[in-house]
Amino acid sequence: MDIQQLYYFMNIVECGCNLSLAAKKIHITQSALSQLIINFETNEELVLFYRKNGRLDSLTPSGEKLYVYAQEITKLHEQMNQMVRKEAAKQKGTIRIGLPSLILRIFFSSFFPKLSVDNTNIKIEIVEGGSNYLRKMLFKNDLDYAILIEPTNLDTKSFEEHVIQIDEMTAFVYHDHPLAYRPLLHWEDLKPYPIATFNETYTTNELVRNKLRKVGLEEGIKLESSSWDYLVEATQESNIITILPSPIERTMDKTLFKEIHFKDPIPFNVLLCRPIKQSYSDVESSVYESILRYFYQPVI
Asked: What is the pTM of this model?
């Protein structure tokens, strides 16, 4: 079987050996699928399916072995196609960079558009997601660069890291919250109130949980989301305290919501990360150096 026929064979199996259902799913005639199986079994002298009343019923042991190989081969075929598309994109000057939506909006909203306009030979492909998700993509070589939150848990022998922003986690509350006008918070102050933060795809979730665990408040987390707008606005309807990175303060309505710092804050440090290679293309080096210059430029 060629690769397309392997996909057809797998589809038949995954549709419970129902040729009619399989044909509808992949938009091919039932007779064509039936003929595919008949031709293979005839030419290879190998029976793939048991029959019952003239219909396919289940896989024979040989069919089961072929199905296992088909799964592996089609998976490798998809991975190969992804690699080809990615390498072709690199040759065209495309750089894939992953970063959390919050970081994109607050720190890079003007940077990437300007970089693309000023450098017509560079195409930036942005992948948004939580740090945990982006780290996995970086491991699989699906990203050229990633903007991650410390700790990155990357192997320093395989990945290069540069701190580009140092900040902290803070509490966000509605303006009439009992703690709204406290100058500083102790973590124990949160005990009577429900807590909200980013979901587990974000490093923030892990950092907040670890901190709350130390003071016996981990069970206090009642709300999680990937949307910082939602998490901040959720404080209007209750006494929820939302714990998020401090830069979010720049996006909120300060007449409605208050930001309160902790006496013992959780660090929120942003790092630019990339795989260590013997050499980088001109486009790769240009984008990387541009990001570093952008964050390290002297304040006037």
From this structure: 0.64
Tens digit of pLDDT for each residue in 50-72? Answer: 999 889 999 999 999 999 999 99
* Nearest to 141, CA basis, from 285, 290, 276: 276
- Alpha-carbon span 65 to 171, nearest angstrom: 56
- 102-161 pLDDT, tens digit each: 899 999 988 989 988 888 878 888 999 888 889 988 988 889 999 999 989 888 889 999
Top CATH class of 167-268 equals alpha beta
Q: Which helix (H) or strand (E) holds 221?
A: strand 221-225
Cα–Cα distances (Å) from 47 to 61, 63, 64, 135, in that order, read 9, 7, 11, 45
- d(C-alpha 210, C-alpha 192), whole Å: 19
Superfamily of domain 92-165+270-296: Periplasmic binding protein-like II (3.40.190.10)
Q: In the chain, what are the domain boundaries?
A: 3-90, 92-165+270-296, 167-268
Calculate the CA 269 to chain-centre distance. 19
Q: What does the buried/exposed string (b/e) look like for 236-253 if buried means 16 or more CB atoms within 10 Å of the residue's CB? A: eeeebbbbbbbbbbeebe
**Are the C-beta atoms of residues 204 and 197 closer than 8 Å to each other?**
yes
Buried b (16+ CB within 10 A) or exposed e, 220-230: bbebbebebee
